[in-house]
Structure formats: structure tokens, C-alpha cells
Specification:
The complex is a heterodimer of chains A (238) and B (226).
Chain A: H1 8-52, H2 63-73, E1 74-76, E2 81-82, E3 89-91, E4 104-107, E5 113-123, E6 128-135, E7 142-149, H3 163-166, E8 185-186, E9 202-203, H4 210-234
Parallel strand pairs in A: 8-9
Antiparallel strand pairs in A: 1-4, 2-3, 4-5, 5-6, 6-7
Helix pairs in contact in A: 1-2
Chain B: H1 11-21, H2 32-37, H3 42-66, H4 75-97, H5 99-110, H6 116-124, H7 131-161, E1 163-164, E2 172-173, H8 191-194, H9 196-223
Helix pairs in contact in B: 1-7, 3-4, 3-5, 3-6, 3-7, 4-5, 4-6, 6-7, 7-9
Classes of the chains: A alpha+beta (238), B mainly alpha (226).
């Protein structure tokens, strides 16, 4: 039987069938991999948290080790954290989802608190950058920084993911700075000497990625005081 | 470039035409948006090319299979739907099995849908040719694209980072770039090569070189005694 492929009814039926078959197929394929994708996303976030608290101790992080370290040492904080000045929330309880901001606490085997990791986010050179920033229990020193999401130029701004750059934050002073100074400096003039208000708060910019470094500098100096105020309001820290 | 109606070519010839004689990048200058975007690292380029080869091959095959049933007035819509499905497959596979890779090139993978090479081959060849030639034509277009992109990415990565295969686990440090207080060497990594504008220069030089070589070959063949 010869089918008239230009008949309006045929065109309508064909379009509907093709759309249903192909979109149905891709939905089924997507559903069949959803569990693996969710596991990957969870593991990616757990790896960032293990790294930001410095729990890897220089050892390679296998998937099993990440899950083990996370289960033993890290848990979400159970207190609401909202900056009373800006209203920025750092810990939202009772809601789950990838976009929900959570703050985590890490503890040693005996239960002593290692520190707190709070979400940091802001506009990078190209698009949104987000990650975690971990501070000591008194909230005055940096334990580490890790990024989850960015669209920076691979090899330039994308180097924010590299451990060699992130480890430069370890131990930095983030106590309240003197008036007119920032909590942290990324790039720009290095401190003139040990007595400079910048001393102990300075990290070199990424070579060739001044824009990304400046963007991270801006949003960290926005989030750190916001988190400190939120933590003070919740009774955390020193 | 549409083949003249009625012209008969073998499946292998159809593939070779796309790889070299009518190469999508240096002959047709199609799909260069991604050629500029992903070629600062060989690793990203390899993955993007794998995604494109898969998409051109599978969409060529599918459109050829359905060519007698697709109504002319909705053919572009159907073709785009088919292309989108195969691109989403690439994205889902990366998400599920190459998660780190997905984090790096997710933005570019989605753009394969709008890559002119894919729709161009479906319109010019697959929707009027049999299964095997159409599949090999799509495969050839993908491989032709990949060959030129790999050349561009090797040049950009060496000049921009001093490395080859950075990010793969088989990284080779060819030139150690100067970094203040870290490495004091004569070589300065060429930041422009890592940024999109660097791709314009390298793409233009590679297209010029490939065209010059191709034209010289054709000229020599024409002058050869029959």
C-alpha cells in the first residue's frame, strides 16, 4: 500500500509517533542511569567535603575511602544558619536537593570538632562558582577550600580545582581584619612584611587567570563575614 | 555541500569525501564554534570529537532508515529531534560513567545539537541515500572534524600549557612554563593560546596549511600525464 507522506493526517501522526518514541526512549535511558548519576553527584560532593576538611592525609581517595571518611567524620549541622544582616542562609534544614545550601561539621574519632565547612558561591569570570570553605572551630583559621561547580576556562581559571592552588589557603587567618582591610586577599600586591595587615591573609592569584582570582576574592570576602555573623547568631565559634 | 542529484558514489568514497576532500572544517568551514571552544586541551577535544562522531554516525543511520517515511514539511523538526536524542545519550553517558569529564565539557556537549555539520550531512546526504553510505558519510564527517580539531588542540596545548594530554593521567610536560617564585625557565606559557582568541589564529593557520596542501595535491594530479 502506497502511503501519501504529505497528507496532513500522516504528517501529524508521524510527528507524534516519532516524538513519542524518541523522547520515550531517551527518558527510559535517563531513568536507567539515574541511580548511577545520583551516586556520582553524592560522591563528588563527599569528596569535596573530605578534601576541604583535610581528611585525606595525602592518601589517594578511592570511592570506598571517601564514603568511609565521610560516614565516620562528617555530618550536616543541625542548626539554622542565617546572617542577620543580609538574610543569607548557610544551612537550610528539612529540605533536600542539590541546590540546597548546607553547612557541615567534621569531628575526630573521639568527637572533638575539627571545624565547619560552609557553602561559598558567587559569579566567576564566566558563570557561577560554588564550593565549600572550611574553618577551625573558633572560625579564625582556614582548614581548606574546595569547589564543586565552575565554568572557568579549562587550564586557566579552571585551575581553582587544583590542589596545588587550593592548599595555599590552608592556615590563613580569617579573624576580623582591621578597619578598611579584607578578610582574605587573592592576588594584587603581596603583604609588604610580617606586620602588614595583609600578612597571613594573602594567596597568589592563578597565573593567567586574574579575572577568576578576583572573582573568588570578591565572593569569599562577602561570604566569610556573612557566615561569621550567622555562626555567632547560632552560638557557634569562639 | 549537497551532492548533485543522481550522482552515484560508493559508501567508502562518501566517507573519504567527508574526511578529506570536503572536510567539514577546512573545506566547508562548518562547526567551528566548538572548534574554537574545546581545543585548548587535547583531552577535552578527544571527548568532544567522540561525542560528535557518535552523533553524526547515528543520526545519519537513523535518518537514512526513516528517509522514505519522513514528510518533507517536517523533516527538519524530525532531524533535529533525532540529533538531540543522540546528543542527550552522550550527555547521560558522560554523567553516569565519566563524571569528571562531564563537569569539564557539559556545556559544549549540548552544543553538538546545533553543530552545522550534523544537520548539514543529514540534509545533504543521509535523507536521500541508503543506510551504509549515509552511516559512513556521517562517520567520515565526524572523523574529518576530529582530525583537524586534534591538530589545533595539540598546537594550542603545547604553546598554552607546555603539555600534551593534560588531565588524562598520561600527561607529558614538554615545556616547563615560567611561574614567578616557582619555576624560573626561559619558556613562557602563551596564555592567548588557552583563551578562545588563540583558537582563531591556530584555526586559520591550520585551514590555510590544509587547503594549500590539498590544492597542491590536486594541481599535481591534474598535471600528471594521463
Amino acid at each position: 500500500m502506497k502511503v501519501n507522506v504529505d497528507h496532513p493526517v500522516y504528517v501529524l501522526v508521524f510527528s507524534a509517533v516519532v516524538a513519542a518514541v524518541f523522547t520515550g526512549g531517551i527518558m527510559a535511558f535517563h531513568a536507567s542511569t539515574r541511580e548511577v548519576v545520583n551516586r556520582n553527584e553524592k560522591l563528588f560532593e563527599q569528596r569535596a567535603l573530605v578534601e576541604v576538611f583535610g581528611l585525606s592525609e595525602g592518601q589517594p581517595l578511592t570511592d570506598a575511602r571517601i564514603a568511609d571518611l565521610y560516614a565516620k567524620h562528617i555530618k550536616p549541622l543541625d542548626v539554622p544558619l542565617v546572617d542577620p544582616e543580609s538574610g543569607t542562609a548557610f544551612n537550610v534544614r528539612g529540605v533536600e536537593g542539590p541546590a540546597v545550601r548546607r553547612t557541615y561539621v567534621a569531628t575526630r574519632d573521639g568527637g572533638a570538632v575539627i571545624g565547619y565547612a560552609f557553602p561559598v558561591w558567587g559569579v566567576g569570570f564566566w558563570a557561577q562558582i560554588s564550593g565549600y570553605f572550611a574553618l577551625t572551630p573558633d572560625l579564625d583559621r582556614v582548614i581548606g577550600i574546595a569547589f564543586l561547580e565552575h565554568s572557568e576556562t579549562p587550564g586557566l581559571g579552571g585551575r581553582i580545582m587544583e590542589e596545588s592552588w587550593r592548599e595555599r589557603f590552608d592556615g590563613l587567618d580569617v579573624s576580623p581584619p582591621p578597619a578598611g582591610y579584607q578578610f582574605i586577599y587573592i592576588g594584587g600586591e603581596p603583604p609588604a612584611g610580617p606586620d602588614s595587615p595583609k600578612a597571613g591573609r594573602y594567596v597568589d592569584a592563578i597565573t593567567g587567570a586574574t579575572g577568576t582570582s578576583a572573582a573568588v576574592n570578591i565572593f569569599l570576602n562577602e561570604r566569610i563575614p556573612q557566615f561569621r555573623r550567622a555562626a555567632a547568631a547560632a552560638g557557634l565559634g569562639g | 555541500m549537497p551532492e548533485p542529484p543522481g550522482q552515484k558514489i560508493t559508501a567508502v568514497k562518501a566517507m573519504w569525501i567527508q574526511i578529506w576532500e570536503e572536510n567539514p572544517i577546512f573545506r566547508q568551514v562548518l562547526g567551528i564554534c566548538s572548534a574554537l571552544a574545546v581545543t585548548n586541551l587535547v583531552y577535552n577535544t578527544l571527548l568532544m570529537c567522540a561525542g560528535l562522531i557518535w552523533t553524526t554516525t547515528m543520526s545519519g543511520l537513523t535518518v537514512s532508515l526513516l528517509r522514505n517515511w519522513i514528510p518533507a514539511r517536517v523533516r527538519i523538526m524530525v532531524e533535529i529531534l533525532i540529533v538531540a536524542v543522540f546528543v542527550i545519550v552522550v550527555d547521560v553517558v558522560f554523567r553516569a560513567y565519566f563524571f569528571e569529564v562531564h563537569k569539564n565539557i557539559a556545556a559544549y556537549v549540548g552544543l553538538i545539537i546545533t553543530n552545522c555539520i550534523v544537520l548539514g550531512r543529514l540534509e545533504a546526504f543521509a535523507n536521500r541515500n541508503k543506510l551504509i553510505p549515509a552511516t559512513l558519510d556521517g562517520f567520515g564527517a565526524g572523523v574529518g572534524y576530529a582530525l583537524i580539531l586534534l591538530v589545533i588542540s595539540v598546537i594550542r596545548e603545547i604553546l598554552g600549557f607546555g603539555t600534551l594530554l593534560k588531565g588524562t593521567g598520561w600527561e607529558i610536560q614538554l615545556l616547563r612554563g615560567w611561574e614567578p617564585g616557582v619555576y624560573d625557565t626561559w619558556w613562557r606559557n602563551w596564555t592567548l593560546m588557552v583563551m578562545p582568541p588563540g583558537a582563531f589564529f591556530v584555526l586559520a593557520i591550520v585551514v590555510w596549511a590544509a587547503r594549500a596542501y590539498s590544492m597542491r595535491r590536486e594541481h599535481t594530479a591534474e598535471e600528471a600525464p594521463k
